[in-house]
Amino acid sequence: MMNLFLQDAQEGAELLTDVEPVEKTLSIIELITSGGTAGMIIMTILFVLLIVATYIYFERLFAIKAASKIDANFMNQIKDHVSNGKIDSAQVLCAQVNSPVSRLISKGISRIGKPLEDINTAIENAGRLEIYGLEKNVSVLATISGAAPMIGFLGTVIGMILSIFEIANSGGQIDIKLLADGLYTAMTTTVGGLIVGIIAYITYNHLVVKTDKVVYQMEANSLEFLDHLNEPI
After folding, report:
1. Is the dihedral of CA 119, 125, 126, 128 positive or negative?
2. pLDDT at position 53, please?
3. Contact at 8 Å (CB) between 60 and 137?
4. Is the CB of residue 129 less than 8 Å from the CB of residue 113?
5. Fewer beta carbons within 10 angstroms: which end of the chain, N or C?
6. Per-residue pLDDT for 22 more than 50?
7. How far is residue 101's CA from residue 221's CA, in Å, rounded to a whole number?
8. Domain residue limits at 123
9. 97-114: per-residue pLDDT in tens?
10. Residue 139 domain-assigned?
């Protein structure tokens, strides 16, 4: 009898050792959908903001790169035309290049014959318009970089409220599934908001640096043009 009992116990132990623990995995989609309706709404908003930020970044990046491209010999040709009195040829060259620098120089050329101060003022006004065009929609990235983490934090607050609500109305029997949904909402929206905010912040600063380089290029070429006009004939 004792041997039979020991044999059954041994067989039971072998069956337990044969059962391997099941490792639970959680995909990104499951992580998002596990947050409940509130979490999915917040994550959808963050996803839309991410798409908008990505579009603005690449659209502005390509526009700024195109604006920074200019022939190294451009200013030498402009100075030769102006020195020889070929104002029309200089304007045609500016139109062919069609860049922020060429448009500034074209504005200055159109004012040749007037006081140098008037030419400088016209170039500065045109420069402000060019800078405004280069910075188009870039401020939206700055807004997203600040708003996305706050939206994620809003999801965190909503998730915690849902969890506390379930605890308060559990009547001593907490529904772990509903409680977990609130916690998922709290955690996933925070992570999502931070990710979108970080991406928007990095892309915004990168565009600012690129824009500053174009602005410096505009200032340098404008100064070179004004110095040429100020040279004694």
Report:
1. positive
2. 95
3. yes
4. no
5. C
6. no
7. 7
8. 36-230
9. 888 888 888 888 888 888
10. yes
Tell me the C-alpha distance between 215 and 141, whole Å: 20
Residue 123 lies inside a defined structural domain of this protein? yes
Q: Is residue 183 part of a domain?
A: yes
Is pLDDT larger for residue 178 or for residue 145? 145
DSSP string computed for the chain: -HHHHHHHHHHHHHHHHHSPPPPP---HHHHHHTTHHHHHHHHHHHHHHHHHHHHHHHHHHHHHHHHH---TTHHHHHHHHHHTT-HHHHHHHHHHH-SHHHHHHHHHHHTBTB-HHHHHHHHHHHHHHHHHHHTTTHHHHHHHHHHHHHHHHHHHHHHHHHHHHHHHTSTT---HHHHHHHHHHHHHHHHHHHHHHHHHHHHHHHHHHHHHHHHHHHHHHHHHHHHHHHS--
**Looking at the domain assignment, is residue 16 inside a domain?**
no
Q: What is the pLDDT of residues 125-157, one digit of tens each?
A: 888 888 888 888 899 999 999 999 999 888 888
